Amino acid sequence: MGGESSKGGEKTILNLKPEERVCIQQIYQTISDGQTHFSKEQFQTYTSKHQLDESLSSKLFGNVLHNGDLHSSDQSSVNPGSSSIGEFEVMCSKLLKGCSTEKVIILRKLSSKNLEASATELQQCLCSLLRSYVGVVQNSIQYQTWKCHCAEDACDRLVRYLLQDLFQTNLKHQSGDSSQCVPVSVSYSDFVLEDWFVKSPMTQHIFDLIFHSIFPIDIDNSSRLLKPMIPVVTDTNWTKFNTILGLEDIMYLHHTLPASFKSEWRLLFSNTLYGDSFTQLVSHIVKKGPNLLVIRDKDGYVFGGFNNEGWEINSKFSGSSNCYLFTLQPQCSMYTATGYNSNFVYFNKGVQTLPNGLGMGGQLDYFGLWIDQSFNIGHSKAQPKCTTYGSPQLSAKPEFQVDIVEVWGVGKNPQEVDSDDEDTQNKQKSILDRDPESKAMLELLGKTQVSEGLREPEEEVMTEELKKKYNTIQKLI
Q: Which end of the chain is more exposed for a tag (fewer CB within 10 A), N or C?
């Protein structure tokens, strides 16, 4: 498996199958218009059609493809402004099937011409990658089920989230909340970048999906798992409803969810549809399965929580440690259970001696997130942190006014699951078991049920009445 390509008098081993090399050669012929070399302009024309950001396309050609690391000594000197098939194969091998070290080197070269990339250069590179990713997603089947917008600052918010673990070590002595800041005069080596890259699955996914979309070599369907970070949405009437979630917000929330809840979402409640009513909220979300609660306050902050067990009216705290809180505006953050207590979710109404409303984390009257039964007001109290989730204050003010509330059911609709279970049970039964009248008619006509003796015997349930009869018979004997 694999092949070889000349590089500076040496042989570069390509991590490509023969059929994958054929695909790459076909792509090369498309770019070069059948010639033995292609120019920067031809390369950029091709990549722009596949949504790659213009600045990234230029750096991919100049810093990665048309670079001493990838060039054969004879070819680069003859055509300094063009690239050969051998160079193209080497680049594609590293882009599409390279190890983390090779991908990080490419990422650094897309960020900077230097041997180390600055924090600002990395941020700009990831913004360009994310814009390219959004372009790919907008051509997907999943995106066609949505009607959402791309906020101006959404790209920057998501990129800061992706880079915060890398930047945090250089900002730990900075006063205030440094989780979303960019270090000044700091550069990162390939070694440091790789340590961050392998711990950032979302960044890896963005990188892989972009370049697999631009240079498709999916012979063995290995990239079929590279689905866009956006679910299919069902049961949502977009002619009557506009979500407050932008595309990047959806991508971030999709990333935070457990795998079993990623593929399908459905709108359960929005106060823009059903009014500012706690009663309406209760009627639309109780017993509807796992869900995401999204709130926007009157100051423009957007935040919420994930309930993996669904909402049930209960005067006590419930839920599990899989629940979490999050923020989308002014920054993307996720806050998981600390283990300090089990006050994960609270949902109560009609009890005079207890708080009535919806809450997550903290304690009674001091929730990490709370919507009062009046619906229009809530609070997020965390001094210094919410004990349950370790979250800070989510809203702009401790006591906030509700602007928009949306609840999204995630994962398979529980009603469909129940229906599937019922169908399975019905398939195990004879049609006559489901239609006793037909069975009785056959017996009146003197007909027997042919399948009666062919089925596996059902285990008899010993009821209390049967037990009494059995005991009586035993005594008589």
A: C
Q: CB neighbours of 59 closer than 8 A, spacing ≥ 6?
A: 109, 110
User: Residue 116 maps to which CATH number?
Assistant: 1.10.238.10
- Of the CA atoms within 13 Å of residue 414, those in its CB half-sphere come to 14
Q: Do 202 and 327 have their domain in common?
A: no
Please confirm whether the linkage preceding 201 is cis (ω < 30° from 0): no
Tokens encoding 185: 């005069």
- In single-letter form, the type of residue at position 455 comes to R
Of 136-150, 317-331, 389-403, the one with minimum mean pLDDT is 136-150
Residue range(s) defining the domain that contains residue 7: 3-225
What's the rounded Cα separation, in Å, for the pair 99 and 324?
Answer: 33
7, pLDDT greater than 50: no
Tabulate helix, strand, coil % of the chain (nearest 5). 45, 20, 35
Strands 82-84 and 232-234: unpaired
pTM across the whole model: 0.82
Report the alpha-carbon distance of residue 324 to residue 369 in Å, rounded.
Answer: 11
Q: Which of 198, 225, 252 is the last residue of a domain?
A: 225
